[in-house]
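stage 2 :: seqdesign
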């Protein structure tokens, strides 16, 4: 006797979608079960501090749409996909390091350029670590795992930069003096050098932007794209002009990570504004605060690149960063606050 074929069924949590969920959806969909959960996010007293924190800074954020679960990362990355992709990129970076170490590239650098690296490159571990910390906070507070996962991968990208900077700092120290790898060599300018203080100020203020929407805006729509343009593009160009091909190639490689971050950021802004047009004004209000501070931080750092043997003009660097930033923010459907595109 012929048996009747049963109709395929999907997971009930995804609704009547009449298809098998993709691996991306399986590991992301409705993972944040605690968002808008009544009476409180977590199974604790509603007045417990952690419940009050989430209710105030996530459910209470002005950045709200009816449903965040339809947002999708343009790359639809799972953890497995991310690890596979970045493993290939790390193999490439390892090969670069092996090539340039074997050629004693660090030892052949102009001493004047090494001084520039000491003042600009070596302290970068501090601001990049703050980008990672803020990203992980946004990931923790985001209303959907489709958003949280994007920020987690972004944080891993920033950690990747910190690790490579730390490694190459030691290589430079082996060639030009152990003082380059000492903690105070990085910490002193970060804490005291006037060129670093505007960036330090905006980053420390970003660490206490607790509303998840404002933290996302400050990080992904203001500070990170501005700083990435300075480091990954402008610094890479100055490195090449000063005969440092390794750092030029390394930071050009990091531009791939930044591009992925900007793509999902633009996608999230479009998703939010399409569903709630009033959010355009919410983003604009936050950007009025964070954009000028990020731009001022870059302007303060540009003289450090002007001190290189083959210098970059501070105004040119600042304008280049502003133009790249304007292109990015306009791609998100938003506008530059306080500085017109040149």
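stage 2 :: out
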């Amino acid at each position: 006797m012929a048996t009747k074929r049963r109709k395929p069924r999907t997971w009930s949590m995804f609704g009547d979608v009449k298809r098998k969920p993709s691996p991306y959806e399986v590991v992301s969909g409705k993972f944040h079960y605690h968002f808008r959960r009544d009476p409180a996010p977590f199974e604790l007293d509603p007045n417990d501090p952690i419940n009050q924190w989430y209710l105030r800074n996530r459910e209470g954020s002005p950045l709200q749409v009816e449903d965040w679960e339809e947002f999708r990362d343009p790359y639809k990355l799972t953890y497995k996909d991310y690890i596979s992709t970045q493993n290939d990129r790390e193999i490439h970076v390892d090969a670069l390091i092996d090539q340039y170490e074997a050629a004693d590239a660090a030892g052949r650098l102009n001493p004047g350029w090494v001084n520039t690296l000491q003042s600009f490159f070596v302290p970068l571990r501090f601001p990049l670590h703050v980008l990672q910390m803020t990203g992980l906070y946004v990931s923790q507070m985001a209303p959907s795992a489709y958003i949280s996962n994007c920020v987690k991968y972004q944080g891993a990208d920033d950690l990747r930069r910190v690790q490579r900077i730390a490694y190459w700092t030691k290589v430079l120290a082996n060639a030009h003096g152990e003082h380059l790898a000492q903690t105070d060599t990085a910490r002193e300018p970060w804490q005291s050098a006037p060129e670093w203080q505007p960036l330090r100020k905006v980053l420390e203020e970003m660490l206490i932007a607790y509303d998840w929407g404002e933290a996302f805006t400050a990080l992904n729509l203001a500070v990170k794209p501005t700083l990435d343009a300075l480091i990954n593009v402008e610094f890479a160009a100055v490195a090449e002009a000063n005969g440092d091909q390794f750092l030029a190639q390394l930071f050009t490689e990091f531009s791939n990570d930044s591009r992925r971050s900007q793509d999902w950021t633009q996608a999230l802004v479009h998703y939010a504004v399409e569903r709630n047009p009033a959010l355009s004004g919410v983003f604009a209000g936050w950007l009025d605060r964070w954009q000028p501070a990020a731009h001022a931080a870059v302007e303060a750092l540009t003289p450090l690149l002007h001190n290189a043997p083959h210098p970059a003009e501070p105004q040119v660097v600042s304008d280049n960063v502003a133009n790249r930033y304007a292109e990015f923010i306009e791609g998100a459907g938003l506008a530059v606050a306080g500085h017109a595109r040149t």
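stage 3 :: structure notes
- Residues 142 and 148 are 6 Å apart (CA to CA).
- Residues 145-176 form the longest helix (32 residues).
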